[in-house]
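Interim report, section 4.2 (structural modelling).
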Amino acid sequence: MKGVIFNVLEELVIETSGMEAWNNILAATGYEGIYTSGDSYPDEELFALAAEICKVLNVDLATVIGIFGEYLFDQLDARHPVFVQQSSDLRSFLVSVDTVIHGEVLKLYQNPNLPRFSYRDEGDTLVMNYTSERKLCILAEGLIRGAAKRFNADVDISHPVCMHDGADHCQLNVRFK
Amino acid sequence: MSDDKKNPFEEAYHRERKTRRRAEQLLEDKSRMLHQRNQELEQINHQLLSQQASMLKQEKLATLGTLAAGVAHEINNPLAFVTSNISALDEYHSAYHSLYKLFKDIESDLMQDKQERLQTLVKQLDLEYLDSDLPHLMKQTLDGLDRVRKIVLSLRNFSRSQEGDRDFTNLNEGIESTLQLVQSELKHGIDVVLDLKELPKIYCNPSEINQVILNIVVNASHALKDRPNPTIKISTNADDKNVLITIEDNGIGMSAETLNNIFVPFYTTKPIGQGTGMGMAIAHKIISEHHGSIDVSSEINKGTCFSISLPQHEKSY
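Predicted structure of the assembly:
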């Protein structure tokens, strides 16, 4: 997982619960907490930090990851505003994720282990098929919600097929109201 | 607590974090720029390698051209007197055959002892077989010499470097007249599709360009033998600078090795005696002398496409 994800997680915790809380989380997990945005770190480290956050905030993992997804979108947008700027609406932005945005990530980083998205247009619904060894579909959902807010788009997101239920991919249906 | 009472360490922390983000952003921008430059360099490197390969090929062909001129000259002189001598020998054999025939006619009129002496000699020397075999030997030798003559002629055509009879020419007319010439080759159900756009006249040697078209079309017709829906599509077009000719067939196609050697003199996939392997080498030479380019792409069992580009002369009209 890229360091930028850890950086944003740290910012979220500090913003909502203070620096001490982040220090305690690091102390509990035993990690140093030194993350550089361009470097890669073990996925397990992120999952352990998220689990510790759940304990501290007393909320379930899915809620933490969902909230983090929304927050992550804002932070990534602040760092790389060009991707949102070059999309006219939420639908075209979401469709550009797999080729344009991940394409740019591939230019900068070797083996970033990106998730794959495939798309199907069903009128008022954009069906996004998500595949990733990390199975972070909830994070993807949070990111989509963050993107919807950024584009002022009113959407319903459903998740009828999930890798956590044994499927080989997750299906995220983004219905535009 | 007023803003002035903020924890100085926290302020410093936020300041440092901003600094780090800017440094990381700078690194990312530089990485992106580096990636872009690297791609440009890779592209230029690819072009250079391709040009280098093309230059090596041109140099090889030029060396072969010089070699061909020398070989053609050296072979031509002995070939001339060998051909002349064989023709004379053919006539001498006619004289000998007349004498042998006379002997056979008057054999029975001779005295018995002379008749026996002559018959013994005919048997010893196997003159009857010699008389019947000589015409075959002479014909095969003359045929072989004719093949050598054609090869030498091809070599001379390949190696000659002269502007020749150039004139302002409409290539479409040349293509149509060339197709008339190869009607017999195209009889076996081959469909010829023409898509000839209006072209400016270009300054070229029309008979040489026609020869290029002819060589390609004849090769295409051979590649189309026993193929379903055999088709040769010839199209012409022009852009601001060049006149473009493409000749496409849906024949058997060529292997990578054949494609790589197609313009090399004497390279042929045809059986011995059925092709000199000079047709495409000459075509390449002619187009190069016209400052044009000839490219070929091919796929096994799909077909072959020749693309010829000839520059429009400044005086073109």
